[in-house]
Amino acid sequence: MARLPHVIPSLDEVQVDIRGAIAIVRLCRPKKRNAINDGLIAAIAQRFDELPETVHAVVLHGEGDHFCAGLDLGELKDRDAAEGLHHSRSWYYVLRDIEQGRRPVVAALHGAVVGGGLELATACHIRVADDSTFFALPEGSRGIFVGGGGSVRVPKLIGAHRMLDMMLTGRVYKAAEGVSIGMAQYHVPTGEALAKAIDLAERIAQNAPMTNYALINGLPRIAEQPADHGFLTESLLAGIAQAAPEAKARVRAFLDGTGPKVKA
Known about the structure:
Blueprint: E1 14-19, E2 22-27, H1 38-49, E3 57-62, H2 81-99, E4 105-109, E5 112-114, H3 116-122, E6 126-130, E7 134-136, H4 150-158, H5 160-169, E8 173-174, H6 175-181, E9 186-188, H7 193-204, H8 209-224, H9 227-243, H10 245-255
Parallel strand pairs: 2-3, 3-4, 4-6, 5-7, 6-9
Antiparallel strand pairs: 1-2, 7-8
């Protein structure tokens, strides 16, 4: 199934800035609080597809006062049940390609991280929330249900019953509390999320690409496997990663004293 068949990507609403080994992907619908419509989600997919081989890590952020306020509800009114089903499935392909792609993605969060915006953020691998950030899943009060993978990804971060609370009661988590329960890994002052995300992405981009790929694609799967299966998956990934020429060069550099050392 195509991700979003017959949809023209709104490429002016997703801009990319290549800075050496990292790419900064920016949502550019500030007047709509970066709410996601079909053109925007198609543009996100195309921008990620077009990243050059030289990019080893990505930062995703939103222009204006908010990261992303979720689904543009104006697109819901004319869909029947079958169309809603296929539309939801089309989002899965786009967010899956972010989550299970070749490059780690760091989300720089500020303002609203709501509904589909939270679904987009949880498809990323590391999330940095500044103090203006708030997390919410208002679908319950609007008579709808999450449709971009939120019921799978969000409970893995915060637990099913916390997500239930958010959807049943409309509970909003502000930045500090959201970080404390697992919505994001980093909490920074207002206005500093993008700089922190760029710093993290630059550090990640220095890793061996195969190691990064093994981490973002292997570790989540191992966590869901029975222990015996997980041990085998780990062994396979370890063998593949250490066989890469770059890994061999890094091990040699460590052994001869020229490689970086772990510091407290």
